Task: inverse folding
């Protein structure tokens, strides 16, 4: 089996093995082994990719194409470039960390890990697909387990949150379906048959009228899961009700599906539509950036703060994508990765705090630095990375984004950029506010004096997220090179 | 006349023989062993279903009144599968309720007669045969709907069904007579050759569609559906919603795609309106249902609305997608009905809130029902997704993007109420959840078959390719 299909096969085998698990111990060991293999495969893929890249300058490498539904010209078609390799690595690491964090999942553990792995299959499949149909299939596979994950293992108003999230995301994917069909039925302008293959569609010119109609549908279809304002409202509710590992996976990985889809499908295949509509979506994205940041200031629930912060950060990703130049795109991808690790780390920490103190309300917490120093220190580090301190991944990403954005010199872009930049200041406010109230100060509750120490599996999960943040921050060049190289086809389409 | 000539009708002859054999067998089976009749009926019909797949013949009988070809054969095989599953699922109910009242064999005879009517309906080469088929397929079902004579609701369902279907066939007949008046023939081929646009023809298309729309339960001809489903025995409700609906869809396909094909511009707006109304009304009414049978009734109305998206395409692709969708729908809907029936027979509970906490007591049944509902909702990787995606593709291929958009809006609405059931089973915990029970082995076989169908039909692409090939040749 080829190196990419393994990303589907290994999780499927893990699920089969999980079906035979008898207890929590079995289930988590099987899940752990499965996700360790995936991380191994992802790291192996990085090296294999560099090796392959040296001798192969095709847009996608490791491609494989199997006919699936011949009458519709649907293929199981896979391949990766630098962007998808980076996102695959992110996914595998977040999944592993998620397994560590859910080490003590008491209720229906087998079902929990199975749903989690089904979700990861959807994500892997999405990132390796080159065929719009296959991609769409995996997209929906990634969304639907969320309903059970939040509904069964969630907290708070879980039924409401699960339903809201599922309906909004599935509604978006329904709109996306129309967009994809629109692309498909305009893919024969080069004289060939209708096709779902992204690379083949990129070679033909989709008629301008069709682009103008289907670009916004495709864009919104993907951007909803990327929490584009005003379609973000599923995100705070969903994230705050979800169990820790699911919040991590969802904010860390699943929301990147939106950005990736917007970039790879909507913009890459319909550049004229993108140019025509970019002003509209830039306004939405920039507004989302500043709105998410301000909304985070007002929240008192830790998960809500982080969820709104995600809206802000992902708004920045979409904003950067719409800047239509190489520097900003590079920043967007880096921001996706950086936010993936960072927000997963945040949710893991919040989950750990909640498990110990049984509250996420920052007004009730205080002085945690004294009792659970490990968690608190990592929280501060993650916070600093989130507000873009040099040395962490957030800085590299945001720097690129804003440098790219400033390359446009007309008034509209300037205003949008300045609005977005100012969100960084607001980010500092809500991060430092939490640090001040929750971590510093006196201990507000006597019970907090003897909180449980951090366990080894929690530490492993945390380190798994923390190290890449620092690695990207300190040595961004190698990953940046990998991305820049893969941006070349996009540049050709747009220039 | 050569006797081989009649072998074109071997499916029909075999089915008739089975029905008669069962009638004869009842005489010889002692009273205490009536149960063996059920085994016999299922065995015979299973063999009949299997043999059906080996029939490949094309031809006409009676001067073109009866015709068959590969695709029509496939239709019949699909109906056979549906009836077989219905029979398997009905066994527990038959043993518990029906045999005691000494009315076992009539059930099979009526059911098989109705199926025979459907064979003739889809094999029809002229309007007379078609009309006979409609009547033969509907009348026995009215008897079946009223089969639980001790229940008032059941008799009510029977009466309701027979009155409304009598009206519907009257309307159909009126449409046929107008078509005859304008073209001078009742044979499909000759009608096609002499067809010209006139007000009378348009009116006849309207009436024909209305008559068939009643059987498919398209809005606004759907009012009987929920009441009949609720009152009738569950097996009959599932038979109505799957087999009977499937047969009517097939004949509508044949009529619109071949006989009335030249008038596509006229029937397309009609189908468009019906599709929009059916999807929205079916879905919106399903939102608030509490009884699982009514719930599935409205869900099956909505599914019929999706089917129209393939019909409106009017192309061979459209035909293939409709047939494929119906095939998947047979398995998905019968899986759902099967679980509902298993629970109803064993515990007598039929409401959605009775299902709370079901996963913790009966995990397998809950999983089957979840898969079935996901397939109905169109969520990958189960088959329903592929069926719906292809229907939408067929419609979009003819430029009906807005209709597809309305369709996907409806998919989202329908997802909500399917998830309500999933919520009850998986998310809720309940003190008085339905306790664990073991259902009969026949039901389990039926459910396993359904699950296999749901899982395999989508991912395994040769099924669709085969259907597509037959549709292109039709």
Result:
């Amino acid at each position: 089996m080829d190196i990419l299909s393994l990303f589907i096969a290994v999780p499927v085998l893990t699920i089969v093995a999980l079906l035979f698990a008898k207890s929590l111990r079995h289930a988590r060991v099987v899940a752990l082994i499965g996700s360790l293999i995936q991380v191994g495969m992802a790291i192996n893929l990085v090296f294999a990719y560099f090796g392959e890249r040296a001798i192969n300058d095709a847009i996608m490498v490791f491609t494989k194409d199997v006919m699936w539904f011949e009458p519709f010209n649907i293929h199981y078609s896979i391949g990766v470039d630098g962007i998808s390799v980076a996102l695959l690595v992110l996914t595998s690491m977040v999944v592993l960390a998620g397994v560590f964090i859910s080490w003590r999942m008491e209720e229906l553990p087998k079902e929990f890990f199975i749903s989690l792995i089904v979700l990861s299959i959807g994500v892997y499949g999405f990132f390796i697909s080159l065929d719009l149909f296959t991609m769409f299939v995996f997209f929906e596979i990634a969304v639907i387990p969320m309903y059970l994950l939040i509904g069964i293992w969630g907290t708070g108003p879980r039924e409401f949150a699960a339903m809201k999230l599922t309906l909004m995301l599935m509604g978006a994917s329904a709109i996306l379906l129309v967009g994809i069909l629109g692309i498909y039925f305009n893919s024969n302008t080069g004289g060939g048959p209708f096709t779902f293959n992204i690379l083949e569609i990129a070679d033909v010119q989709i008629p301008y009228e069709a682009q103008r109609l289907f670009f916004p549908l495709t864009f919104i279809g993907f951007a909803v899961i990327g929490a584009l304002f005003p379609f973000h409202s599923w995100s705070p509710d969903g994230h705050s009700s979800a169990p820790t590992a699911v919040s991590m996976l969802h904010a860390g990985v699943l929301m990147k599906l939106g950005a990736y889809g917007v970039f790879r499908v909507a913009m890459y295949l319909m550049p004229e539509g993108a140019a025509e509509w970019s002003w509209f979506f830039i306004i939405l994205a920039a507004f989302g950036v500043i709105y998410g940041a301000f909304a985070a200031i007002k929240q008192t629930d830790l998960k809500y703060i982080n969820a709104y912060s995600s809206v802000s950060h992902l708004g920045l990703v979409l904003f950067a994508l719409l800047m239509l130049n190489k520097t900003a795109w590079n920043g967007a991808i880096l921001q996706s990765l950086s936010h993936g690790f960072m927000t997963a780390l945040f949710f893991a920490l919040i989950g750990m705090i909640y498990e110990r103190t049984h509250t996420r309300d920052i007004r009730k917490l205080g002085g945690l630095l004294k009792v659970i120093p490990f968690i608190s220190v990592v929280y501060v580090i993650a916070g600093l990375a989130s507000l873009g301190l040099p040395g962490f991944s957030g800085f590299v990403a945001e720097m690129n984004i804003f440098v790219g954005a400033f390359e446009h010199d007309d008034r509209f872009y300037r205003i949008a950029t300045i609005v977005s930049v100012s969100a960084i200041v607001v980010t500092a406010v809500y991060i430092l506010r939490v640090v001040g109230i929750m971590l510093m100060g006196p201990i507000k509750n006597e019970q907090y004096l003897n909180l449980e120490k951090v366990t080894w599996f929690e530490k492993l999960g945390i380190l798994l997220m923390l190290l890449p943040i620092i690695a990207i921050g300190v040595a961004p060049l190698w990953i940046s090179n990998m991305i820049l190289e893969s941006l070349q086809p996009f540049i050709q389409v747009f220039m | 006349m050569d006797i081989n000539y009649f072998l074109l009708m071997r499916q029909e002859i075999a089915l008739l023989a089975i029905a008669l054999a069962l009638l004869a067998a009842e005489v010889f089976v002692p009273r205490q062993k009536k149960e063996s009749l059920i085994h016999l009926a299922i065995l015979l019909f299973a063999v009949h279903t299997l043999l059906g797949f080996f029939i490949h013949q094309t031809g006409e009988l009676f001067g073109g009144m009866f015709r068959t070809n590969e695709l029509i054969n496939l239709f019949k095989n699909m109906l056979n599968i549906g009836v077989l599953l219905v029979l398997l699922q009905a066994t527990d109910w038959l043993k518990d309720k029906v045999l005691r009242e000494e009315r076992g064999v009539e059930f099979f005879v009526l059911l098989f007669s109705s199926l025979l009517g459907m064979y003739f309906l889809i094999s029809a080469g002229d309007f007379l045969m078609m009309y006979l088929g409609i009547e033969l397929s509907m009348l026995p079902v009215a008897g079946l709907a009223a089969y639980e004579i001790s229940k008032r609701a059941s008799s009510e369902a029977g009466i309701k069904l027979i009155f409304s279907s009598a009206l519907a066939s009257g309307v159909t007949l009126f449409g046929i007579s107008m078509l005859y008046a304008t073209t001078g023939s009742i044979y499909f081929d000759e009608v096609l050759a002499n067809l010209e646009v006139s007000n009378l023809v348009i009116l006849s298309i309207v009436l024909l569609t209305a008559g068939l729309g009643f059987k498919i339960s398209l809005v606004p001809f759907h009012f009987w559906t929920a009441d009949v489903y609720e009152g009738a025995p569950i097996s009959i409700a599932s038979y109505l919603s799957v087999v009977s609906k499937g047969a009517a869809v097939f004949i509508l396909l044949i009529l619109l795609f071949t006989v009335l094909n030249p008038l596509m511009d006229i029937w397309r707006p009609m189908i468009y309106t019906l599709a929009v109304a059916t999807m929205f009304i079916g879905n919106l009414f399903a939102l608030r249902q509490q009884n699982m049978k009514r719930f599935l009734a409205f869900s099956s109305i909505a599914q019929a609305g999706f089917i129209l998206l393939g019909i409106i395409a009017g192309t061979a692709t459209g035909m293939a997608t409709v047939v494929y969708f119906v095939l998947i729908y047979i398995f998905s809907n019968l899986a759902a009905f099967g679980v509902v029936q298993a629970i109803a027979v064993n515990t007598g509970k039929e409401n959605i809130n009775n299902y709370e906490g079901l996963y913790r007591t009966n995990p397998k049944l809950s999983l089957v029902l979840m898969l079935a509902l996901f397939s109905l909702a169109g969520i990958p990787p189960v088959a329903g997704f592929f069926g719906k995606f292809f229907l939408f593709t067929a419609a979009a291929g003819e430029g009906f993007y807005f209709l597809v958009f309305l369709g996907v809006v409806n998919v989202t609405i329908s997802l909500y109420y399917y998830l309500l059931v999933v919520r009850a089973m998986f998310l809720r915990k309940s003190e008085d959840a339905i306790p664990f029970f073991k259902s009969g082995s026949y039901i389990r076989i039926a459910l396993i078959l359904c699950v296999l169908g749901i899982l395999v039909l989508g991912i395994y692409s040769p099924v669709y390719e085969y259907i597509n090939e037959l549709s292109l040749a039709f």
Notes: Residues 218 and 388 of chain B are 18 Å apart (CA to CA). The mean pLDDT of chain B is 90.
